[in-house]
Amino acid sequence: MTIKLIATDMDGTLLRDDRTFDYARMEDLLDQLDEKGIRFVAASGNQYKQLRSYFEPVNPDRITYVSDNGALIAHNNEVLAESSLSRDQIARVMQWNSETHANMDNLIILSGNDGAYVSNHATPEMIAAVKTFYPTVHQVEKFMDVDDNIFRFSLVWDPSVDVHEHVQQLREVFGEELHTTGSGFGSVDILAPGVNKRTGLEQLAAKWDIKPEEMAAFGDNGNDLEMLRYVKYPFVMPNAEDFMKVRVQNLAVNDNNHNGVLDTIEALLAGAYDDETVFDK
Length: 281
Hints:
10 helices, alpha/beta
């Protein structure tokens, strides 16, 4: 078995529920990966700046980032690729939302190069929740007045809401014009067409001449599916929802709160998964 790239989702995957991970073990693993020439990629719906902040204790420049669910790819603090939404696409999604959810039962977040944008009608409690995921939050009167490259349009419901129905509605309306996916925490993410974590890995694969047969990946939610189906060695977290375990049957060694990603990477490096029949899809 030859692995040249390992990618992981963050929330519910590498990150514990307190949004930390074992920094000492990660630093040791990064040393081992460097020795073996294996790239380590953080592939997440989080913004680039937020992702870098998670890795400050282990030197964020050691990580490659597929952020905003594939809309922005960066390595060595250099943007390799980006895909933003057009003003017309943003306007159409806003129109759909106002017609379908006129009672404002969700929160709109635009994720851009210069931060996140929310309505100035958002409550202080909403703003505090948004700041958990976005390092810079701007409140605006009109979303269409925002002057920034918008990578991701998020609709956020209460975390108890099953967003799969909303994802399906958006897919029926916009088809292939936009990419729509559930992203956890009651969120639906809308991106430019053909943008997802898989396409992010594909661009890195072309840059570094790495095949999907030489990749492993970890995830826990619907926005990880394209990536997990792309690589030869996919792992779903034990804490993932059941629909994920049906679609990708290989489980990480432990859940996100018990170092599941780190444990499984160590097992991979030790040759525990050399029997490729484990990964028959």
